[in-house]
Specification:
binds FE2/S2 (inorganic) cluster; alpha/beta; Rossmann fold; 18 strands; Elongation Factor Tu (Ef-tu), domain 3; 8 helices; single chain; Ubiquitin-like (UB roll); six-stranded antiparallel beta sheet; 317 residues
Length: 317
């Protein structure tokens, strides 16, 4: 595990924007002068710096074979943290954005076959996976759920790609996807990849402890279960600073007030940008970067979402 060291790139041009589903805008980015971009593999994401300075990470959802173009799709969330609203409400075509990456923390690992489970905009990393598995001639099945048909992003591409290997589940017609049945029907040796809102991923993890998951921001897709959080102290060893993390704020929020250059990106625990070494205390890991089996021995934590199980947490900052 390492910090996100993706290189800072020259700005990329927003070459095209198009609606691909209700409230979902697809952006295609190229070098301003054209030419090949760094290669990427399914599961990778990039980080865009928006005109306001907000930085947001999005999965690449195009075809890695299209070397000149990076494609992302962004779901508009009216009450989100502002990134998707800015992308939807700003005329970005023709503008240049700073782009970092690609980084892949959700790679396809070898398996006999694959069950891909997507909720809403969670289809974005799984679409290139389905393409890749098709190209490799490996067995796969994909289930995509959304509130209604108009929100099933890339449905036509998926059906064209996979035919009856693709199950589209508009919730207003068919209810929620039967994840238990899908997972039970997956043959032995098949890997389960899931991407979507937190409640869906929690359901997948409870049915299948070894699923590979990527979580989308609660503000982007679903609702976050809010428990009663405790406040705790954070000591920044290298800076010699000490502060309190209140119940309703993240470690990252509080640390940024003291150290404005601390790296971060997704703020949802999936990109790894804010990974920070822990020198003392007991982190309460809530990210999806560190494998649950490694949490007990992890020496780092994602300070954007993880908290502390001890009264004091010391960070190497
Ligand atoms: S900012 Fe992405 S994991 Fe913390």
């Amino acid at each position: 595990m390492s910090s996100d060291t993706s290189p800072s790139m020259a700005p990329l041009l927003v070459r095209q924007a198009r609606w691909i589903a209700h409230d979902v805008l697809e952006l295609r980015l190229t070098r301003p002068e054209g030419g090949a971009l760094p290669p990427w593999e399914p599961g990778a994401h990039i980080e865009l710096t928006l005109p306001s300075g907000l930085r947001r990470a999005y999965s690449l959802c195009g075809n890695p074979a299209d070397a000149d173009v990076w494609t992302v799709a962004v779901h508009r969330v009216p009450d989100g943290r502002g990134g998707s609203r800015e992308i939807h409400d700003t005329a970005l075509v023709g503008r240049e954005l700073e782009v970092r990456g690609p980084v892949n923390r959700f790679p396809l690992l070898p398996a006999k076959g694959y069950l891909l489970l997507a909720g809403g905009i969670g289809i974005t990393p799984l679409l290139p996976m389905a393409r890749e598995l098709t190209a490799q001639g490996l067995p796969w099945r994909l289930v995509l759920g959304a509130r209604d048909r108009s929100r099933l992003a890339y449905a036509d591409d998926l059906v064209e790609l996979g035919g009856d290997r693709v199950l589209l589940v508009p919730q207003d017609e068919s209810g929620l996807p039967d994840l238990a049945a899908e997972i039970a029907a997956a043959p032995p040796g098949h890997a389960v990849y899931a991407c979507g809102p937190t409640p869906m991923l929690d359901a997948v993890m409870s049915l299948c402890r070894t699923a590979y998951t990527e979580r989308f921001a609660p503000g982007d897709e679903g609702t976050q279960a809010m428990g009663a959080e405790a406040e705790f102290e954070v000591v920044l060893c290298r800076s010699g600073l000490r502060t309190t993390v209140p119940a309703d704020r993240s470690v990252l929020d509080v640390v940024r007030e003291l150290l404005p250059t601390v790296p971060y990106s997704c703020e949802e625990g999936y990109c790894g940008s804010c990974e920070t070494p822990v020198t003392a205390g007991v982190p309460d890991h809530r990210d999806t970067v560190i494998d649950p089996s490694e949490r007990a021995t992890a020496t780092t934590m994602m300070i954007c979402v993880s908290r502390s199980a001890s009264a004091v947490l010391e960070l190497d900052l």
